[in-house]
Amino acid sequence: MTEKFSYAKSGVDIKQEEKAVKALVEKIKHIRKGFGQPILMGHYASIVDFGTFGIAITTDGVGSKIMVAEAVGRFDTIGIDCVAMNVNDIIAVGAEPVAMVDYIAAERPDEKIMAEIAKGLEKGCEIANITLVGGETATLPDMIKGFDLAGTAIGFVEKDRIITGEKVRPGDVIFGIPSSGIHSNGLTLARKVVEKSGLSYSDEFENGKSIGEVLLTPTRIYIEVLDILRNYEVHGMAHITGGGVLNLKRLKKAKYVISKPLPVQQIFKFIQELGNVDDDEMYRTFNMGMGFALIMPEDEARRLEKSGIVEGRIVGSVEEGEGVYVRDLRIDT
């Protein structure tokens, strides 16, 4: 394919999205009076004050991965993605997830699809050790084509154990934890590349799995990070979602250098080659094999590497300056 693909060309302009969100947030100024005031806003999760503890809350959806599920006719994994996208953001501020509600908006009710979605939600809740305490379904034939799946999760954290990234400093290292694959971001670009190439989601990808099956690999739930937080000094965390490694910029302003990236799964190489996608665009759009990152003192990270608690390793460092780099390539330009 000679056409050069990008996330913006596929219909998702991250910079324009940031401007739209800023326009929304600038108009919302009211802060609750009395008990339960916010102590952290605009991070992976926001946190409100509940005395000794903070209550973390976040919301997210599965996005256009649903369209791959519809094309393949398989709906039993996207519920895991919905749980993962929410609880990983809760974990990224140092909180333990405890409960979640889901929201399904559908063109028309479908009992079989709902039952399949429920299988994934149940499995995701089991992995994350949370309870799905309720939710809402809406039938909106005039608004929705197919369906949409989203959720909201809450968690708790002792206020002196909240991790925002403010302790990140030059000399810290970046400890990368592998992803399970594409997770639930960048699917608009991935879908456009596959569909424009004339391939089908049922075409074989590798090891007997189809392209669609590989794209539907559920998002990894990083619940083991909670054990790391109990036993290691961690200065900041990044859940690598939309925006790829640029998620590191949600932490303290610094220069984040990924000098030894984790191995990139074959699905990313496939998308890049098929769509003629630039390296920097890939790292701005996808997790590229690293779904979660911890910013730690080097001695703590070395100890973690030897512990066997979690698969992963040191992938880079924090330096004076600013920006996000993968090897010598600056990504945030």
Structure explained in plain terms:
- One of its GO terms (biological process) is adenine biosynthetic process.
- This is Phosphoribosylformylglycinamidine cyclo-ligase.
- Residues 45-157 form the PurM-like N-terminal domain.
- The protein is of the alpha+beta class and 333 residues long.
- The protein has two domains: 30-161, 60s Ribosomal Protein L30, Chain: A; 173-330, Phosphoribosyl-aminoimidazole Synthetase, Chain A, domain 2.
- 30% of the residues lie in helices and 26% in strands.
- It contains ten helices and 15 strands.
- It has helices at 14-25, 65-72, 78-91, 111-128, 187-196, 211-215, 225-231, 266-275, 279-285, 298-307; strands at 38-40, 46-50, 53-61, 96-106, 131-139, 147-158, 173-178, 204-206, 209-210, 236-239, 255-258, 290-296, 313-319, 323-326, 329-330.
- Helix 3 packs parallel to helix 4 (111-128).
- The longest helix is centred in the middle third of the chain and has 18 residues, at 111-128.
- The radius of gyration is 20 Å and the shape is globular.
- It starts with 13 loop residues before the first helix and ends with a strand.
